[in-house]
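Need tokens for this chain, all 55 residues.
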Amino acid sequence: MPRQRRTFTPEFKLQMVKLYENGKSRADIAREYDLTPSGLDKWIKKSSSYWLVRS
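Here are the structure tokens for all 55 residues:
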């Protein structure tokens, strides 16, 4: 049975990105908050700070 699609607030997404930026691994965040790694990756890449670090 497919998993029902969940929605997350922008505040929650930002909180997850900040956890990653503060050194927590993507795998740990995804496991702890029951997120898909690909969804978390999208949030990280969409965050402005990700692109500032990359440039």
